[in-house]
Amino acid sequence: MKSIALSVSKIAAPVLGRRGLAEAEMILGWAAVVGEDLARDTLPIKLAFGKGDRVDGTLHLKVVSAAAPEVRHREPQIIERINGFFGYRAVARLKLTQGPLPNAPLPGPKPPRPLAAAETNALAHSLDGIVDPELKAALERWGQAVLGDQPPPPARPLAPRKESR
Predict the structure, then answer these.
(1) Neighbours of 108 (CB within 10 A)
(2) Is 85 found in the same domain as 125?
(3) Per-residue pLDDT tens over the stretch 31-40
(4) 165 lies in a domain?
């Protein structure tokens, strides 16, 4: 059984070969270079150098818009990690392009919060008169989703205790 890395390198070589072997390795191992958290929200596009130079280049990154401020804040750390990967000062700056990453999964809806016991009881009570079990189940799911999207009800303060004499 061959390692996946060997297969990926052979498949990607024709596409990434124009950029240079080190750049191709960086793109293939992007998560190992910058870490899983940044790799989820960034994608290296190209590494541009001045004419005749191979140092102090500009790395063009595609960045999920919500992550751009964090990437900008962590730019020195990212550059340090990339240069550590290359073994010399290959990158001096990052150029960020905001937008969705290709083949990135779209964020799904936020799941509703669990209902408090009082909310569950009130919902069940409001559905008592419904005879059709399928309709009742559908309305219960809908009610849970609607109530779960709202802020939880405020906790009731405990009634003050009466002092006995």
Answers:
(1) 6
(2) no
(3) 888 988 899 9
(4) no
Q: Which of 39, 130, 50, 57 is nearest to 93 (CA)?
A: 57
Could you tell me which of 24, 94, 105 has the C-alpha nearest to residue 57?
A: 94
Q: How far apart are CA 5 and CA 3, in angstroms?
A: 5
In whole angstroms, give the CA distance from residue 40 to residue 138. Answer: 36
Residue at a domain's end among 98, 125, 140: 98
CATH value at residue 76: 3.30.300
Structural domain total, the chain: 2
Residue tagged 């994608």 (tokens): 43
3-state secondary structure 25-80: HHHHCHHHHHCHHHHHHEEEEEEECCCCCCCCEEEEEEECHHHHHHHHHCHHHHHH
Domain assignment present for 94: yes
Locus of tokens 């059709």:
132
Per-residue pLDDT tens for 48-89? Answer: 888 888 899 999 999 999 999 999 999 999 999 999 988 899
